[in-house]
Specification:
5-stranded parallel sheet; alpha/beta; 8-stranded mixed sheet; 14% strand
Length: 419
């Protein structure tokens, strides 16, 4: 949809300029809205206002540069008034895997004083069932003059519209994926749909807010359970001296079988986190989802148990650890099992030289940079120097390497790339 005239452009404040908030803000601004992005990270705000991006996502940099130069997107650390708010803040979990809604609560408290009535507030953060109601309660507790009842000049409208995009394809999938829209009160869902129709070409699937929240969790829990099956097969196969990659390939020739690929664990802010929200919401009814999480969380330990005995037999061992991101060809390290494995290797092998290879970043994350025995290294240099090569992420740079470099190396391929 082409941008509207300046006088008709809806005003939108996007709270949280992370991996979902910034692409959403940029796409909205390029599609007909006047957008203010809000984030507590002053450096990220300054970067965006220069027309640059604080993290890598294909095609995003061009869009951000364009809408900033046109004045359709600006960033700030202070929440402004807007007709529409999109809350895209983190939703991590606390000890015991209990959902941490403090970021949502803070966003609500910052929005509340600005409201005049008739604003639309969309919670886009992946959240446990009831989080949209929690956001509404937070705001209405701070502003008892406002209401959820429709038809009043003091009505505030709430909806839940979870993101459903794949890192590395966010700018494409924001436009093309179907969108679930959950209404909490009045015509909030319809208003949210109208806003997202500025850029979204997919089908809009209308429901209530709790069902929308649960739908996103269900999508990620489904994938987590299926990955856990593959990871458990890999552990069983290892004990039986069976090549799990061949096993899965053979089984998948059955017309109704489609087993996913095992790996060193599950990462990212979605699949590694969201199933715990279901477990926390219904602990007595979610034993399968809990077990899948435990299987996947245990996989890094399995990788370490295979590698450490070999490494300890080599004096001043040199280890090339290929990959730190949570999936191929991106720079996103959140909840990454590869990052966890490299950190534990550094702790368990203080005399080792661990060459971390991650072609999508320029600097190690702080907890690895602080370790004296971990360095960020170029792939061919690391493999040539290594006694042990540990493939953790199947980045294109690793799948294309000259296999002769692996000759006479101890190789641990957790992704099944090298056969």
């Amino acid at each position: 949809m082409p941008p509207t005239a300046a006088s008709q452009r809806p005003s939108v404040a996007v709270i949280g300029l992370g991996y979902i908030g910034l692409p959403t803000a940029a796409v909205l601004a390029s599609s007909g809205a006047d957008v203010v992005g809000v984030d507590i990270n002053a450096d990220a705000v300054a970067t965006i206002n220069e027309g640059k991006v604080p993290f890598v996502e294909p095609d995003m940099a061009t869009t951000v540069a364009g809408v900033v130069s046109q004045g359709y997107l600006r960033a700030t650390t202070e929440t402004p008034h807007a007709d529409n708010y999109i809350v895209a803040v983190p939703t991590p979990f606390k000890d015991g895997h209990e959902p941490d809604l403090s970021y949502i609560e803070t966003a609500g408290k910052q929005i509340a004083p600005l409201l005049e009535g008739n604003e639309l507030i969309i919670l886009e953060s992946t959240s446990p069932p009831g989080a949209t109601e929690f956001l509404a309660e937070t705001i209405l507790s701070a502003r008892p003059d406002l209401t959820l009842k429709s038809g009043s000049a003091q009505t505030i409208y709430f909806a839940h519209c979870p993101e459903r995009v794949l890192p590395g394809r966010i700018m494409i999938e924001l436009r093309t994926n179907d969108r679930i829209v959950g209404t909490l009160n009045g015509n909030a869902g319809e208003r949210a749909r109208d806003l997202y129709e500025l850029f979204c070409e997919g089908e809009f699937l209308m429901t209530d807010a709790r069902t929308a929240e649960m739908a996103k969790l269900t999508e990620n829990a489904y994938r987590d359970v299926n990955i856990a099956f593959a990871n458990e097969l890999s552990v069983i196969s290892d004990g039986l001296d069976i090549n799990v990659w061949e096993l899965i390939k053979l089984a998948n020739h059955h017309p109704r079988v489609n087993i996913l690929q095992p790996g060193p664990g599950v990462g990212g802010h979605c699949i590694a986190v969201d199933p715990w929200f279901i477990v926390a919401t219904a602990p007595d009814q979610s034993s399968l989802i809990r077990t899948a999480r435990e299987v996947n969380d245990a996989k890094p330990g399995f990788v370490l148990d295979k590698l450490l005995p070999q490494a300890r037999r080599i004096a001043d061992v040199q280890i090339a650890a290929l990959g730190l991101a949570f999936k191929p060809n991106i720079d996103d390290l959140r909840e990454s099992p590869a990052r966890q494995i490299v950190g534990q290797l550094a702790d368990e092998l203080p005399q080792a030289n661990i060459m971390a290879v991650e072609p999508n970043i320029d600097q190690l994350p702080s907890e690895l940079e602080a370790r004296d025995n971990v360095t960020l290294t170029e792939v061919n240099e690391a493999i040539r120097a290594a006694d042990i090569v540990l493939l953790l992420v199947d980045h294109n740079e690793f799948t294309r390497i000259d296999r002769t470099l692996l000759t006479q190396k101890i190789v641990h391929d957790t992704r099944g790339v090298w056969g």
